[in-house]
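Researcher: Next entry in the queue.
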Amino acid sequence: MGRGKLRIHLGAAPGVGKTYAMLAEAHRRLERGTDCVVAFAETHGRPRTEALLPGLEKVPYRRLEQGGVTVAEMDLDAVLARRPRVALVDELAHTNAPGSRNAKRWQDVEELLAAGIDVLSTVGIQHLESLGDIVESITGVREPETVPDEVVRRADQVELVDMTPEALRRRMAHGNIHQPDQVDAALSSYFRPGNLAALRELALLWVADRVDAHLQRYRSEHAVSAIWGSRERIVVGLTGGPEGRTLIRRAARLAEKGAGGQLLAVYISRSDGLTSASPGELAAQRTLVEDLGGSFHHVVGDDIPAALLDFARGANATQIVLGSSRRRTWQYVFGPGVGATVARDCGPDLDVHIVTHEEAAKGRGLPVTRGAPLGRLRLAWGWAVGTAGPVLLAMLLNAFDPGLAIDMLMFLAVTVAAALLGGLAPALASAAVGSLLLNFLFTPPLHTWTVADPRNIVAIVVFVAVGASVASVVDLAARRTQQAARLRAESEILSFLAGNVLRGETGLEDLLERVRETFGMESAALLERAGDVEPWTCAGRVGRGRPVERPEDADVEVPVGDHMALALTGRVPPAEDRRVLAAFAAQAAVVLDRRRLREQADRALALAEGNRIRTALLAAVSHDLRTPLAGIKAAVSSLRSEDVEWSDEDRAELLEGIEDGADRLDHLVGNLLDMSRLHTGTVTPLMRGTDLDEVVPRALGGVPEDSVVLDVPETLPMVDADPGLLERAMANVVENAVKYSPPGEKVLVAASALADRVEVRVVDRGPGVPDEAKERIFAPFQRHGDAPRGAGVGLGLAVARGFTEAMGGTLNADDTPGGGLTMTLTLHATGASPEDGRVTAPNERRAS
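Model: Structure for this entry, 848 residues:
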């Protein structure tokens, strides 16, 4: 059986009817005789949605305990065993409860599809992973549950479930989405008209892009070359000339007139690489196109009009923008020009705009190129072959006399060899010497400078012409090859620099070493000075050459501004290398500035952090230390007083108060010391295999005995941890949970194994923490909400996370289903294999 089909109902916001549409589709398929079952459907108590459930077979859900609450999850094994034709799986982005086979519901759906079961599912646009930041900026709410975009894009069908913001707000006001007591808050926050309109636009654009990709794939698969004008796509043809910016802006205005218009700029270069385009101008035009929201494309083609039309049809373009020709009037004798040819051959589906500009009819300059030197050794060999080669060949042929035709071919071969080695001049010399020798030694009458047969005259002339032509072509190819190799090397170097500018990875010394190696220098240094009369100082230097104290002492000086220069020693490079050297010098200055700014930022951050900690510490000392100290002093003063006769009960109560105050002080000072160790980096965990069922109970010593329910199985694998740090971290987390739990509500401490990790969850039923504050509560000296003064200085969770991360684990806060906060502490199991996630059994490990 093949892979199943996935159909997703995509909605812009909660309540638009995704689940309703999924259930309605199931009823339609059921009427056609398709075997459909409900694997999981979340109705959220909405009556109209629940009314569609009767008549559909439902696979019983799994019931799992999560934080003392029973939650329902899809029973994947039961659905696979039932093997329906179609399974309904609601909320694709849902996170499964701990203990499930897969962490996410979309992974369950992948297993159903692999088993050949078709799936109907739902997802909201706010749950797409790539749109999380955008949705948060619109609504102010970060969706914790997301699904990778690729999962949704791979769906066989994506149906948009749409509703106007006004209709959705009416549905909310009528109580069809949330409970009545939640309607006002929802309408004034998440369900504001602007939020819903923005989310709806996101959903429509996402689906439109997917439809466009499907259309392009269909056109490619079916070889459709006709233009389908589903949206305006404007192609602007660039030549690299100064008129390109005018054309780009004109094309951008055309694209803006149509909804969803696209701008595509294309530059077509000849395959031989000979072009008059300015690289700097092309780079500026590329930047302009991207700033205007378009895309830049570089295409190679010898027939410019045909290549432009092929690109436009391949991109399903609707309009082409070209500039008026820069040809002068007399130049039209060579042809109609690119614009006229494109307008003639474009057909009825493409509109061609010819835009006037200041460069029109001013003429097009020819490219100015200069041959690259071939090297002294190659020139020497070329002249040797071009002059001595024909003489030696004549001596050899005179001994064997193979005939005039073979003689001429052999001399032509020597001419080509001279061209390959030394270029044009040695080849012409070889052709001249060879023609003279052919005439004197091998053309009747022999040993005279005359030629009796006119056909031999023609043969010698053709020999000289062919030799010169072949030599010029070979010489040009050799020079172009060397030029291409050099330009490729330059482009690789500049690409390296551009990549490092964007990533900010290369340090100053690394960059200087790259300069030294690239140009074969002995040393490279970056010199700077504070003013025109100040002495030069070395900001960075690499190499073993002589030290350079001033730019004037170097073999190569590349200035960077008025007070900085790149100084190189070893040799004097050719003038064309200075362009790349200037780029290196500018980048070196940027790297130096970035390094100094980073150092300043680090110092400022360290100072700010130190000031913040000192301020918070002073506040903690002034407030939180004063209360237990005052209590202890009052109790001691009372006990020492001789004016009052204390009973044994009163004396015991005062002593208990002293003990409680001392314990609070001990706990507070311990957290302060731990925090200082974490900030100074002196925490060094002693990692070893640790049993949670031994450490966790010891961590509960600071809380009342009946305040915690412990569920740590003895069969759990051991974890890599420092027992002391783990105990301290668990104690702080549990004490925090007990502190905020309502009276009579117990805190659940449960542990379970998951792949190569072990999770310890501390679940409370307190007021909980909003999503935007879940990270803030782990910062030092932070207390959430209206915590009383006696609740501590806000170091417990910061110390717990610091110790956990020092042991290679994580500590995160999540909502408890039904209300409250769940702290999840995750550690690596001892002996876990990163490749397959295998964890050695506890009895095996303890026996080893």
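Model: The first helix runs from residue 18 to 31.
Researcher: Noted, moving on.
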